[in-house]
Design a protein that fits this description.
The chain is mostly helical. It has a single domain, classed as Ferritin. The chain contains 8 helices and 2 strands. Strands 1-2 form a two-stranded parallel sheet. The longest helix has 25 residues. The two termini are 16 Å apart. The N terminus is likely disordered.
Length: 233
């Protein structure tokens, strides 16, 4: 794909100011929440208007990587939308508030990629969450933690393939929000476990996964067949 065919991304939606009440809610929980709000959009849309597809081709080059990220954001947005729509038994007001905020972040990321890719964007994906017990706190939190850890490793692994500096900058902004989600979810599992050796190596660096590895893991929940053959190897 020629350089001029690659969509121009603007990060204004990610930097949009947020309502003071939302800011204060995060501020009460420390700098991680504050930074997440500064980087994520306040977006409440819970739908994707593109028709669902049986198979999608991510494309190649930077567009392929951006569609790859878009696919993962679709997955996370769909999951958190379900969590908020059908809260698990015994969910606290704080937990519901945070899951709602995380949902809004993921929807903002999804819609950001969809708008930025424009006609290059893949169609809406179909998902299978039948293996998740949405009425169970442990099932929901464990899945959320797995999704966030997977998302962080996916962005880390895909960043090396991006050729356009602006895209890499924007990917870095989004992955930092995903990492804060992951840290919060780990705290819900067990206090003071926001990071561990399963996600950070001996050098203090986040782990990374290649797109091929990530898509195999994500395929458990994605019904739509994804053709990633054009992605950089």
């Amino acid at each position: 794909m020629k350089h001029q065919d690659v969509p121009v991304l603007q990060d204004e939606p990610l930097m949009r100011k947020l309502p003071r009440r939302a800011f204060l809610r995060y501020a009460g929980l420390g700098s991680a929440g504050i930074t997440a709000l500064m980087l994520a959009a306040s977006c409440h849309k819970d739908h994707n208007n593109s028709p669902a597809a049986e198979e999608v081709n991510l494309g190649s080059g930077d567009v392929g990587i951006l569609n790859y990220a878009y696919a993962l954001e679709q997955l996370e947005a769909a999951f958190y939308t379900q969590v908020v729509q059908t809260p698990y038994s015994g969910i606290t007001d704080m937990e519901l508030s945070f899951f709602t905020d995380i949902r809004d972040h993921e929807i903002a990321h999804r819609e950001f990629f969809k708008a930025a890719l424009s006609t290059h964007a893949i169609a809406s994906l179909q998902f299978d969450f039948s293996s998740i017990n949405f009425s169970s706190r442990s099932s929901v939190i464990a899945t959320a933690k797995a999704f966030e850890d997977l998302g962080v490793s996916a962005y880390n692994g895909a960043g090396v393939y991006l050729q356009t500096p602006d895209y890499l900058t924007l990917a870095g902004k989004i992955v930092s929000v995903e990492a804060r989600h992951a840290a919060y979810l780990r705290e819900l599992v067990m206090t003071d476990t926001f990071v561990d050796t399963d996600v950070v190596d001996s050098n203090g660096l986040d782990l990374s996964r290649k797109p091929s590895e990530v898509l195999v893991i994500a395929s458990t929940y994605i019904k739509t067949k994804i053709n990633a053959s054009g992605l950089p190897q």
